[in-house]
Write a structure and sequence with these properties.
Layout lengths: L3 H6 L5 H24 L3 H60 L2 E2 L9 E2 L1 H25 L11
Antiparallel strand pairs: 1-2
Helix pairs in contact: 3-4
């Protein structure tokens, strides 16, 4: 069970640390504005009513846009997650087949495990390097930031 000191020592670099100060300042500003608005005359409140109307019109559009982009982000994440899991499964299948069929030396002692032959070990190392390269290039092909890696140049 973590104690408070340990938990607060983990705050540095988190979203909470970066968002706490601006959030508190906005809360103080909003509370001050509410107190000021209550002490003002009715014409000031009438102007705030116009802001409320504008906000009401904008609220529907804002909700639609946020919902649309959230749905698009979720669809993208789901597609990438599914692709990643499929690739992980196929690489796992390939690596298991290679590991079980690679040539081995017979052990010198009865109870010791077998050792790969030098040629099999070299082959497995090469396949491991190619798999890591494939993995990096796959993720590069998914994001627009690394599209340049797909060009023929």
């Amino acid at each position: 069970k973590p104690d408070r000191i340990w938990l607060w020592s983990r705050l540095r670099g988190t979203v909470l640390q970066h968002a706490a100060k601006p959030t508190l300042l906005n809360m103080l500003w909003a509370a001050g504005f509410c107190l000021l608005a209550q002490t003002r005359e009715p014409p000031f409140l009438a102007k705030l009513q116009m802001v409320h109307q504008i906000w009401t019109y904008q609220q529907g559009l804002t909700i639609f846009i946020l919902t649309f982009f959230l749905n698009q982000a979720y669809s993208f994440w789901r597609e990438i997650y599914t692709l990643g899991r499929q690739i992980q499964g196929r690489l796992n299948d390939i690596h298991l087949i290679l590991a079980t069929t690679a040539a081995r030396k017979k052990p010198r002692e009865r109870n010791s495990s077998t050792i790969y032959t030098p040629a099999a070990e070299t082959c497995l190392d090469d396949i491991g390097q190619f798999s890591r390269l494939f993995h990096a290039l796959f993720w590069a092909s998914v994001t627009r930031r690394y599209e340049i890696l797909q060009t023929k140049r």
